[in-house]
Design goal:
The complex is a heterodimer of chains A (490) and B (345).
Chain A lengths: L1 H4 L1 H16 L24 H18 L31 E6 L6 H14 L4 E6 L4 H11 L8 E5 L3 H7 L6 H6 L9 H5 L2 E2 L2 E2 L2 E6 L1 E6 H6 L10 H13 L6 E5 L6 H11 L16 H17 L2 E3 L4 H6 L3 E7 L3 H7 L4 E4 L12 E6 L6 H14 L2 H11 L8 H4 L1 H6 L1 H10 L7 H4 L4 H14 L4 H24 L1
Parallel strand pairs in A: 1-2, 1-3, 8-9, 8-10
Antiparallel strand pairs in A: 3-12, 4-5, 6-12, 7-10, 7-11
Chain B lengths: L1 H16 L26 H44 L2 E2 L8 E2 L3 H8 L1 H32 L6 H13 L2 H12 L6 H8 L10 H29 L3 H9 L4 H12 L1 H16 L1 H10 L11 H11 L3 H26 L7
Antiparallel strand pairs in B: 1-2
């Protein structure tokens, strides 16, 4: 098995970096080694030991000689699944599991609280919480690296744009048999939220920290501009309101901030392209960025930033811009809601996203998956934890403390009091009823989110015409599809 | 015993010079007491045999000394290198247990992708600016710190400190300083009467920002190397120049600079290597993540992004191989054309 061997030398290699660098030093005039006699004490290193060392080196070389992917064809693609089983009924769950989380929306305490509750209810299973990165990319990268070794997590947090890549690679396990073994009430999960993880007739993840984009606005700015206390119903209305809002802002302040590629602009823009009646792609991966509606949406944000001028692109974090009073409104994830409500010195309003031709709103955020290739006992324990973490009272707790959606239908009743206290949360939940699953180009094509994001950055930051930018983006999306998706699902 | 131990190193030099020396005069023969002068009788074949045996033994010791090193370098430097070249011929999604052999497809893709030339352009700008900036400012700082000043030791430590700081920490702190709304740099520029650029959102300025921080972080390294160089320049030369009526600029140009040329050459090679490869990664990653609009995506950063964000391990290996060839070429050119101009006193 190549996987394990790769582990050992990787650690040893650290110490070896310096001698290699030392090769450069003769240039700076170190005395030539040939002139001096080695003053080694006799006996410490005799020839035999040296030869022994050499042999050890050769053995290490042989050990690591295998590794990397197999190119023998697609037949062994299911190798990783070999350790899994379809029948979990007679198994006892493992006594300890690892949960890799990124604590989205500062949810570390909530993760810890759920683990505490779980261990209380299941004293024979201990859960280790691992902060596997500070964003979804980092946890995914760490998982990709872990696949080369044997330090795999048992419960893995994956964002909307990452889980499909692992499906394509065969590195996450289908959950259907596990759901059955743990008698999970799948019907009580919100239909869109659980449906997002279904592909090929099977379930690949369970919703956990799920969100939608939400329109946030500064109620003080709104009042000063004499606007009604609600979000704009349409983008046209926001264009009209912008003038009144701008009057109260200083010279370099903007009314509205878009985000950049690193903050998933393609996720938020998806709601705009839908509102204009366009889509990134059809479900069969046909890219539809050349449609009039798609181009109109792209042109709209280009004009908003470069011609109307009331909108800008956040330098770093649009939520901080809003909570610091730098801007009047923005679109952000529901996962930012709790932080915004706590961190702002003014009252923050939350509203449905603006419409154009129609209303459009995607879901997003992260779910929990179970890797393939780990012991079935661990997978069973992992599923027990996932089931517990998404129980109505637990998802209600998680939603209340962070702002993500309660993923269970029956959790909504448990949150009545919270909704009363902070009606912004109810807005998010009401909007959830009108969401649609995301376009394949963003979530199923590997790197699709970043490809789209770079194109949108060009449109907004460099004033590039949308048709031109989308043309480049469409080609890149098609290339990634042909390279990564078509060979697998072909 | 000590004579025997001296052998391997001599053998190493011998092996290097083997082609240049006439075979009839092996080194060490004339040395009294050395293994080459053992009781050589009149029988020439016996001498030859004896020599052969000695040489065989020496070769064995030579191997014993070098094999552990060679094995480790092979294991941790050359094996990954060759593996990388092999991976560059694959269509391989990172993490996938299987891959498809695609020959040179990845290379064709790289050379036909219009983005590649942009990344190459950014790499060239970044490298030239950081190497030039680091060496020039490093020399300036070293010259100042070579004067007899109060608190010179402290100043030297301060200048060198950024070099050993974590790049991520440095990047994050500088990001706060460059912040167009809250940073300390914007008001300073405004005070001069210029509108500060939006460092975060304009690709060109973002690149300038990363270059500035890179130079700041690495100039201490150049300064320390130059400082060492300045201190071995004999005082007599400066005094002689002064007697001949040379001003400070003339002295600097005609004496200091040429005598520092070994340091300059050494810095050119090492700073170029580190700027084009791993050292630049942590700053770019913590500051801009290659953005905005790819404006700070160097080849090094592209390798990371293709491999770990897009998951295209094969393509990422291709870019890595291309970067390796470029680095090798640049270093060889530096060795070939610049080392001639170096003045080793």
């Amino acid at each position: 098995m190549p996987d394990r061997n790769l582990h050992l030398p990787a650690q040893g290699s650290r110490g070896l970096v310096t001698p290699a660098r030392g090769l450069l030093t003769p240039m700076s005039g170190v005395t030539s080694p040939g002139r001096r006699r080695l003053a080694l004490p006799a006996g410490t290193l005799d020839r035999r030991r040296f030869l022994g060392l050499g042999a050890a080196g050769a053995a290490a070389l042989a050990l690591t000689a295998c590794g990397g992917p197999s190119t023998g064809g697609d037949d062994d693609a299911d190798d990783a699944d070999a350790a899994s089983t379809d029948d979990y009924r007679d198994l006892t769950p493992a006594s300890e599991i690892k949960f890799w989380s990124v604590h989205p929306g500062n949810s570390r305490e909530a993760d810890e609280e759920l683990i505490r509750r779980f261990q209380e209810a299941n004293p024979d299973i201990s859960v280790t919480l691992v902060t596997a990165g500070s964003n979804y990319e980092e946890v995914a990268q760490r998982f990709q690296t872990a696949l080369q070794g044997d330090d795999r997590p048992d419960v893995l947090m994956l964002s909307d744009v990452w889980w499909f890549k692992y499906y394509l690679n065969g590195t996450i396990t289908p959950l259907d048999a596990l759901l059955e073994a743990e008698e999970v009430d799948v019907d009580d999960y919100h239909d869109t939220l659980i449906g997002d993880y279904q592909y090929d007739g099977r379930q690949w993840g369970m919703p956990y920290a799920r969100s939608t984009p939400l329109f946030y606005y500064n109620k003080e700015h709104w009042a000063e501009a004499g606007l009604p206390d609600r979000g704009p119903e349409t983008w046209d209305e926001l264009d009209e309101w912008a003038e009144a809002l701008e009057a109260n802002l200083s010279g370099n302040q903007k009314v509205f901030h878009h985000v950049k590629g690193a903050s998933y602009v393609a996720w938020i823009f998806q709601s705009i392209i839908w509102a204009f009646g366009g889509r990134y792609s059809e479900d069969d991966f046909t890219i539809t960025l050349d449609s009039d509606e798609a181009i109109a949406a792209g042109e709209y944000v280009r004009r908003q930033v470069n011609e109307l001028g009331y909108a800008g692109v956040t330098p770093d974090d649009n939520i901080i811009d809003l909570s610091s009073g730098g801007i009047s409104c923005t679109i952000g994830s529901t996962g930012s809601l709790s932080g915004l409500l706590e961190g702002s010195s003014f009252e923050v309003g939350a509203a449905f996203l603006p419409e154009k031709e129609q209303f459009g709103c995607p879901t997003g955020g992260a779910g929990l998956s179970i890797p393939s290739g780990i012991d079935p006992e661990r997978q069973l324990a992992a599923m027990r934890f996932i089931k517990f973490a998404t129980e109505p009272e637990n998802t209600a707790y998680y939603s209340e403390s962070v702002g993500y959606m309660p993923v269970r239908k029956s959790a909504v009743d448990l949150m009545a009091e919270v909704f009363e206290r902070e009606p912004q949360r109810r807005v998010a939940l009401e909007q959830l009823e009108h969401t649609s699953p995301q376009d394949a180009a963003r979530v199923y094509i590997p790197d699709g989110d970043q490809i789209l994001g770079r194109g949108l950055e060009r449109i907004m930051l460099q004033n590039e015409p949308a048709d031109q930018a989308f043309d480049v983006v469409a080609n890149e999306l098609r290339a990634s599809y042909e390279e990564n998706v078509a060979p697998v699902i072909g | 015993m000590s004579a025997v131990l001296a052998e391997p190193s001599r053998l190493a030099t011998m092996a290097l010079r083997e082609t240049q020396r006439p075979p009839s005069a092996p080194p060490g023969v004339s040395r009294p007491g050395g293994p080459g002068t053992d009781d050589a009788g009149p029988d020439r074949t016996a001498v030859a045999r004896g020599r052969r045996r000695t040489r065989g033994r020496e070769a064995l010791i030579f191997l014993a000394f070098t094999i552990p090193n060679l094995a480790l370098i092979g294991l941790f430097t050359y094996r990954p290198l060759f593996n990388n070249v092999y991976y560059s011929l694959l269509q391989w999604n990172l993490g996938s247990p299987t891959a498809r052999f695609v020959g040179l497809d990845n290379y064709v893709n790289w050379f036909t992708d219009p983005h590649s030339w942009n990344y190459l352009r950014i790499t060239v700008i970044f490298t030239v600016a950081t190497v030039g900036g680091t060496i020039a400012v490093g020399l300036l700082v070293a010259t100042v710190l070579n004067q007899r000043l109060h608190g010179r030791g402290f100043a030297r430590a301060v200048v060198f400190a950024p070099y050993v700081l974590s790049g991520v920490a440095v990047g994050l702190v500088w990001m706060f300083m460059f912040d167009p709304q809250f940073g300390v740099i914007a008001p300073v520029i405004r005070a001069v009467g210029i509108d500060p650029p939006n460092w975060y959102n304009q690709p060109g300025w973002a690149l300038a920002m990363v270059i500035i921080v890179y130079v700041w972080k690495h100039l201490g390294y150049a300064a320390v190397v130059y400082l060492a160089g300045l201190q071995i320049i004999p005082r007599e030369l400066h005094e002689a120049a002064a007697l001949d009526g040379a001003g400070p600029w003339r002295t600097f140009r005609s004496i200091t600079l040429p005598l520092l040329s070994p340091m300059t050459f050494f810095l050119l090679v090492t700073v170029t290597l580190s700027s084009m490869s791993a050292q630049s990664f942590e700053l770019i990653h913590s500051m801009t993540r290659g953005g905005p609009v790819d404006g700070t995506t160097t080849l090094m950063y592209q390798i990371y992004r293709e491999g770990f964000v897009a998951g295209r391990a094969g393509y990422s290996a291709t870019v890595a191989t291309i970067l390796f060839v470029i680095l090798l070429g640049v270093t060889l050119l530096q060795m070939r054309f610049l080392e001639r101009k170096v003045h080793y006193s």
